[in-house]
Amino acid sequence: MANEETGQPIVSDSLSATAVNVASTAAQSWMGVVLSTPLSRVQAVVGVLAGCLTIVGTLVSYTGLSKPPAPVQGELVALVQLANNHRPLPSATVEILTAQDAIVTTLNPEADGRITRKLKEGRYRLRVTHPNLVTETRSVEVFAGQQSQVRLALVPRPVARPVRSVANVTVVEQPGAVRKFFKDLGF
Description:
Elements: H1 13-27, H2 30-36, H3 39-63, E1 73-82, E2 93-98, E3 103-107, E4 114-120, E5 122-130, E6 133-142, E7 147-154, H4 177-185
């Protein structure tokens, strides 16, 4: 339907008022809405939001969600040296074993005799071998986020002494005093 005088469509008054209201609301910014509401209502909304944020922040800090994860590895530092003069032994071989004797890794010390290795927390055994020295074994416990230090001093292998041969000797068993006594009694 169109208006006969203007030729424009006829719109009811309620529909026209709604369209004007929507257009004016869209024209207003959110700041205008905030400023047009009573101050006590704005304060109440801000207070409730601040309270919720405080509660959430407290819960996050108590549950540990904001903490960095705890380290699961520690560091093992071993110093391998000669026992008599404390010189480093870079030619030694160091085996790191678990408590069940499974080999974790095999390392050679640096020129200063030091080895460094990151390991999971737990108990380990170190076995140090050298062709001319006695093998040394030590137990060490590694704690997460900490450094465990071990000093290993190797001693030279004992020199084997030559075995002397003894001439044929005949051993004659002589009865002792107790046997003589009982033999004299007739037993």
